Amino acid sequence: xxxxxxxxxxxxxxxxxxxxxxxxxxxxxxxxxxxxxxxxxxxxxxxxxxxxxxxxxxxxxxxxxxxxxxxxxxxxxxxxxxxxxxxxxxxxxxxxxxxxxxxxxxxxxxxxxxxxxxxxxxxxxxxxxxxxxxxxxxxxxxxxxxxxxxxxxxxxxxxxxxxxxxxxxxxxxxxxxxxxxxxxxxxxxxxxxxxxxxxxxxxxxxxxxxxxxxxxxxxxxxxxxxxxxxxxxxxxxxxxxxxxxxxxxxxxxxxxxxxxxxxxxxxxxxxxxxxxxxxxxxxxxxxxxxxxxxxxxxxxxxxxxxxxxxxxxxxxxxxxxxxxxxxxxxxxxxxxxxxxxxxxxxxxxxxxxxxxxxxxxxxxxxxxxxxxxxxxxxxxxxxxxxxxxxxxxxxxxxxxxxxxxxxxxxxxxxxxxxxxxxxxxxxxxxxxxxxxxxxxxxxxxxxxxxxxxxxxxxxxxxxxxxxxxxxxxxxxxxxxxxxxxxxxxxxxxxxxxxxxxxxxxxxxxxxxxxxxxxxxxxxxxxxxxxxxxxxxxxxxxxxxxxxxxxxxxxxxxxxxxxxxxxxxxxxxxxxxxxxxxxxxxxxxxxxxxxxxxxxxxxxxxxxxxxxxxxxxxxxxxxxxxxxxxxxxxxxxxxxxxxxxxxxxxxxxxxxxxxxxxxxxxxxxxxxxxxxxxxxxxxxxxxxxxxxxxxxxxxxxxxxxxxxxxxxxxx
Length: 714
Prior knowledge:
- Residues 319-496 form the 3-hydroxyacyl-CoA dehydrogenase NAD binding domain.
- One of its GO terms (biological process) is fatty acid beta-oxidation.
- One of its GO terms (molecular function) is delta(3)-delta(2)-enoyl-CoA isomerase activity.
- Residues 498-593, 625-708 form the 3-hydroxyacyl-CoA dehydrogenase C-terminal domain.
- This protein is of the alpha/beta class.
- The protein has 3 domains: 3-283, 2-enoyl-CoA Hydratase, Chain A, domain 1; 314-494, Rossmann fold (3-Layer(aba) Sandwich); 502-580 and 617-706, N-(1-d-carboxylethyl)-l-norvaline Dehydrogenase, domain 2 (Orthogonal Bundle).
- It is built from 30 helices and 19 strands.
- The strands form 4 sheets. The chain has an 8-stranded mixed β-sheet, sandwiched between helices. A 7-stranded mixed β-sheet has the order 1-2-3-4-5-7-9, with helices on both faces. Strands 6-8 form a two-stranded parallel ribbon.
- Strand 2 (8-12) and strand 3 form a beta hairpin.
- It is globular, with a radius of gyration of 28 Å.
């Protein structure tokens, strides 16, 4: 061993070959943090000054190669002036370039993931060999960033500008076959042969059988594009990417700008432009928010791992009570992740509806090439539709998903508790009904909790796990572990009216109703809030949720929080409900739904709706609409944090991102409050004090403003 650090080791092999080994001794994965970059720099200096080296291979004994840069270091760096960020990029970039310019051929052996900085390291090598299990890519734009270690310069010179723009803008991981096809890697081999193939390749290069100098020169010069090709490639890319990314996601467009600006430059000049581009996007609010999302998601994953380790009950067989669309979606989700499930209802029609929901999802997957017919058959066979309780009796965990009626749920829960094992867990997929109320007549309330899925189940990442007063820690841990095994992100919340997501959503809806009462046009509100970044405006969302569902939820929340969530006089939602206009489910709500001549769904405004809900008579400023909609939501989130309904700001924000589609580029309601400035949020609220209790500033927010605190720190 000629170098033995915490993150890297280096040893000399036979025939003058050096092996650079990425193996972080303290972490389960390799990543480029400041310490690793420093050690890599030292290894490069050692390789440059050691006589007799004919070539080098880079390997890792871990199940992954390098997952990328250490994101935890980024937020602190974002607070630095842009000039300091550029300097940091230059220093880090010089290390990558230093490895590329070693005076002998280099080969990297990619096992598992080589993403972001990990793949940029691979791009500095002359040849890249990947195992069949490898995944490579540059996903930085998912964090609001662009590659900063040479990815926007080296990748286009290897695979062409079109392919490189797609890889960087789409931010996807790529299988080795796809990477080989475009030239991002040079060979694929079985995992057990990876190191041997890399050694053979570097020996071939050292012996002159491979022209490694020509290969390296391709990355160091300008791109091979004539003027017409360049214009067509970049203008087309800007149009396609800009339509999807702008205005909320500037990073993909900045990546294209850098690739275009550097197309005719030698690598040394081009890298300086990339450093500037990285600094440009790193100082945007979007990058700050999206990096925070990444860190928040890591917290959820960490908590899920702890739950899996501490759970005393493992769910190997599940059951769903109540078929229908929701029950069918839950059954599909469990079966698709390898956990068989019984699906019980009282009619064959309901069972057919549930099975058809699962089959519809699978058929779409087959059509898109994401699911094989064999996989579809296996998943369908793992769902056991039943009219009696016999198959349910063996379940490790039962999800009750019958009609949202406390009396019906009470009967069903008591019934099933009597037939399942004494250590089986019972959960309710309720969206509003108190877990403590539902536990009242159960014999084993410690084995009962809420498990609130969001519709459509297969698309929405969130599951709210609701802890009742008597719910045991073991029950919560097992339920979180099951949700995770189903491919969901679980957030644990305490029992209260509306739990967390619905409790904070309905003040937002109430703000909408009050705006309508004051003469606003729901079409303008929808447009403004979609422009804010929501997947859809509040009127459209209410139609999707179901006007009837929203109306009944409003009753629960008004009873639970009578001062802040009392019903709005002349509420448009109530008027629609009483006119049997339930939204998408029956074709008419705020909008009217149908299909066009081609059978595609349509959404139009039937002007007669204004005869029912009232004619708009005032146009509001966009900022006022945003403030009146968002403040009640933010304040209710703060109250939930204040009351301990949710444990951390990270979980508060992620629950709304995953459960409601809160705009990711804003990071979540608390990250958004940080961006506005907590003191500024308090000041804005003063303008709306006359609108009632839902605009009253929570005590926690007042104290934070007084102490100049934020929910997140770098």
